[in-house]
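Subject: Protein record for review, amino acid sequence with backbone structure tokens
Why sent: The fold of this protein is of interest and is recorded here as tokens.
Notation: Tokens come from a learned vocabulary of local backbone shapes, not from coordinates.
Attached in line: The record itself begins immediately under this heading.
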Amino acid sequence: MALSLAGKTAIVTGAGSGLNLSFARVLLSKQCNVVFADLALRPEAQELVSGHQNASRSPAKAVFQKTDVRDWQQLGEMFSVADKEFGGADIVCPGAGVYEPPWSNFWHPPSTPPSRDSPSSSRFALLDINLTHPIRTTQLAISHFLTPTKHTSSSFSPPKPPVSPLFPRHIIHISSIAAQTTPLPAAMYNATKHGLSGFVRSLSLLDRMGVRVTAVAPGLVKTPLWTDHPEKLHWIGKADEWVTPEFVAEKMVDLIEKEELEVEVDNKGGEGRKMVKMEGGLILEVAKGRVRKVEQYNDPGPAGEGTTVEGMETAEEEVLGRLKEGWGM
């Protein structure tokens, strides 16, 4: 059920920057149209979209749709854009996410600065972005795959046929090694990634109807989630190694295009390799220059280059130091 990307269409949330931008870039290079669904585009993303807006200049087209992934109506609108422009989507990546930002953070409770979570809303923005949004987007994707739009003003392609093993679709999620690790400073982030990995595994049987749901679980990826946040960047030590977003994006494409992939046998690297079948529910850990299958049971856990944060103990002490009488009041 591998997909050839040429002539296909993808919706990528969070494509305005970071890992999702790298993924969108690779898709476009493989002649796959992309709907960039994000609040805004960083300059490098704007340049990429601008270079792919004219079909006569590029074999693939890029469209920006301003999207707040916390708003379910706006999630629906990005599918409408894909329907209108391209006859529907073949690939959906609900990749937008945040890494325990100060404005929605377990250790900065609602109504205490710098949190912007309101007690009256009964919601955490981090949970809405990192977990509720990918779950709702997956619902919408399955709905659109089963019942494609019957009308389109697109000059690029007619409406796509309903999903089936002959006409497969793919939903690819971005989990994290935090789905297996539990550092104290990122408590809510960890919870969302544990939940997301479980969600992906739960949908493995959708393979039977032609909908493949998979995920990557990257390690320490050098993106604005880290580089734009000095309060977290100082946790990174000299011994820590970055995973490049380009390498992760390549493995995301492998999940879509390939029938099987060679991976490390375990988390120690260099001790052996094996071929893994691409199938629903599969989660690939992506570290520095290395990929392995995350097993559902008896998994050895992340290790090696690209999976460590040297200053995490310091970060944990910073959190514990905040927990004094009056915290959260």
